[in-house]
Amino acid sequence: MTKKEFKAESKRLLDMMINSIYSNREIFLRELISNASDAIDKIYYKALTDESLTFAQDSYYIKIVPNKDDRTLTIIDTGIGMTKEELENNLGTIAKSGSLAFKKENEVKDGYDIIGQFGVGFYAAFMVADVVTVTTKALGSNEAYKWQSSGADGYTIEPCEKDAVGTEITLKLKENTEDDNYDEYVEQHRLQSIIKKYSDFIRYPIKMETTESKLVEGTDDEYEEVIEEKTVNSMVPIWRKNKQELTDEEYEQFYKEKHYGFDTPLKSIHLSVDGTIRYQSILYIPETMPFDYYTKEFEKGLELYSNGVLIMHKCADLLPDHFSFVKGMVDSEDLSLNISREMLQQDRQLKLIAKNISKKIKNELQSLLKKDREKYEKFYEAFGRQLKYGVYSDFGANKEALQDLLMFFSSKEKKRITLHEYVSRMPEDQKYIYYASGDSIDRIEKMPQTEMVLDKGYEILYFTEDIDEFAIKMLMTYSEKEFKSVSSGDLGIEDKEEDNSNDADPQEHKELLDSMKEILAGKVKDIRLSKRLKSHPVCIATDGDITIEMEKTLNAMPNNQHIKADKILEINANHEVFHSLKQAQEQDKDKLALYTNLIYNQALLIEGLPIEDPVSFTNDMCKVMV
Ligand SMILES: Nc1ncnc2c1ncn2[C@@H]1O[C@H](COP(=O)(O)OP(=O)(O)OP(=O)(O)O)[C@@H](O)[C@H]1O
């Protein structure tokens, strides 16, 4: 049996390459600039082993020359150039990467890493150009060649004149159509912004003539157009610099330049990891919440670079949702990119980096909490809610990692404290971590249910956000202590023997409680004598897992399932109101119904719950007054 080779329809292949690989046309410039940078790198590598060569970094550059009249864009480099044979091989064969071959031959190391690997980037030029002309002179050669192609039809190669070693690629831009404007690729500002976006950290200067309007010397209102050659890229990626050499101002400057936010970041984290996967990263904890943070429009993610070239603007997979506020970038030379560089071929490396980054962020936040409380509180004010979501979501998968970053307002301290701080000062006889939920600190402070817990000298955490109780339910315990709502049926507080002020006998008042239960049938699950009330006559407690605040939150959700908390009406047997109830029970059943309804509605009001029938409530009030 003879084995046959596959044939390829090269015209169709080229057409597919040009039109299907990239989703964004502007990246043609990134590809050509990366090739130019690779070509210069190759001289650098050659110079390492060839003593007759010296590599003077300053003499190498890339130049972008737009020509509006001819509608051409030329990319010039002072790199290694190509011989006639290399032109044939590299630009005449699709998917042949001279750069990859070079990398393998020269065992490229030490950070000057060559970008090209697939042998397709060059053809991106045909996304914007009808005709591409390459003139090139290889290092060490006296001959120069011109390669020209209009795409699928093939190419020509002929000798030409060129003094300097290097390559010049001229694109004759396509004609504009109704939908597409190609003129933008000869516009100075547009080109500058594409270079800044993708190629800002190419190691060699990318030069361009720029026209700027400047004040004429000696005048104060006369301007003239000045043409200057400028380097438009920053060249040295700040993340490749040594941490010790960088100042806070430089990190802040980078944050602003990259438009990560308008604020001044609270903290920057600079990572340089050289493990199973190598990467560098600069991360920021912003100071203020972006205006769209809690909207559908907000996109989390970090910038992803491969060898200093931007691959993805917002790589969401690098950040877990609970740290979605983090801004910054990651650069790695170890990513397996797909052919368009728009995606990654496998996400194992990305997962590793993401895991690593997530750990670092957590550690940095923890150290901020320890070392700079004020800053941490500022951070928590803006993004604490997201951490609580993090505890709750994914069925609590991250709760352990996040629990020590949480803070809640304390009844004792009158400011936010951590769970660790709470537990570490719990009196020995205190079994639970107590919390009270309500709309605001003010309201919670006035809640009758807190009386007994406070009286015992126990601290209460105030929950004012709807997510709080859900997060805590997911956490279940902290340091082996369970959480308990001050409104829950059983507070788990044992009365000291001498304190029997709340020890009224329920049996003794059974008849009254039963009559009241009948009056409030369907509204409350039970009526009990309270152990927690001191000065207030009445409150609502709950049995079971659903508390009043949770009921409110669940019922405010779009898929409202009318979930109800099991409400218990608690009455303070030591309060004068209780005696009035007792009297009414004995003398006037209508009065008992009136009083019972009144105190029930009062309890609802205190909880911030709506009164079912406000008109009959006010009528009842009037009846008491007249
Ligand atoms: N400006 C240049 N100077 C010298 N050689 C070049 C230049 N541009 C391209 N080449 C050669 O042509 C080859 C093919 O380039 P092309 O951009 O298609 O692929 P690549 O850069 O190797 O890989 P990738 O598709 O990953 O960018 C390169 O590998 C390189 O050998």
From TrEMBL:
Coiled coil: none
Matching SUPFAM superfamilies: ATPase domain of HSP90 chaperone/DNA topoisomerase II/histidine kinase, HSP90 C-terminal domain, Ribosomal protein S5 domain 2-like
Residues involved in ATP binding: 31, 35, 77, 82, 90, 96-98, 117-122, 167, 341
Entries under CDD domains matching the protein: HATPase_Hsp90-like (cd16927)
UniProt-listed SMART domains: HATPase_c
Region (A): 1-341
Keywords from the named record: ATP-binding, Chaperone, Cytoplasm, Nucleotide-binding, Stress response
Protein localization: Cytoplasm
Location of the region described as C in the Swiss-Prot/TrEMBL record: 553-626
PROSITE patterns: HSP90 (PS00298)
InterPro entries: HATPase_C_sf (IPR036890), HATPase_dom (IPR003594), Heat_shock_protein_90_CS (IPR019805), HSP90_C (IPR037196), Hsp90_fam (IPR001404), Hsp90_N (IPR020575), Ribosomal_Su5_D2-typ_SF (IPR020568)
Molecular function terms, GO-annotated: ATP binding; ATP hydrolysis activity; ATP-dependent protein folding chaperone; unfolded protein binding
Domain Histidine kinase/HSP90-like ATPase residue range list: 24-177
Major location (coarse): cytoplasm
Cellular compartments per GO CC: cytoplasm
Subunit structure: Homodimer.
General function of this protein: Molecular chaperone. Has ATPase activity.
Family membership: Belongs to the heat shock protein 90 family.
UniProt-recorded name of the protein: Chaperone protein HtpG
Record organism: Pontibacillus litoralis JSM 072002
